[in-house]
Amino acid sequence: MLQLHMGCVGVLMLAGAASAADAPPEIQRPPAAPQPLGVVHTLRTIPEACARLEGRFTGVVAAPYAVAVVRTSARCQARARLIEATVVRASTSNGWILNDVIRVPAAACAGQQAVVRIWRKDAGSAVPTLDAQGRARLYLKDGLAAAASGQLGAVPQYAVAMRMEGKECRPNR
Question: What is the domain extent for residue 66?
Fold first, then answer.
């Protein structure tokens, strides 16, 4: 009887994981245009993190696609952190929201595509209190005091994960 219950729990856990994996991303987009080997292309810009994600097909069987994070401007002040999804184990069960799924097919290999998933986690910041005039006011002196005491609020985070889908192929060079 215990085995039957454990089996049911296992099936329910798999069904829950499957439904979480099937959750649609916040941004819906069609697959990108097929990209040739070695050509760098922009996947997405994340203005809050002052970053642009660039990808390229390498032609190397062990690592067929490379994603690089490029700073958008030296003067940009980031309001969010950009981290690797495997480091934080981004998933819906950890409070992360699937923000975007970018599919990039390989022009040299018809059945292969790179899939870049971008996860988002809000800072959970509270709404500032309203003053006597009904306005939310932020004062520099209060912000500096909070920073000096180490009580700064959390910042939003973005996490990026990449994987290859489809059949492995060796492009002709």
Answer: 26-125+135-166
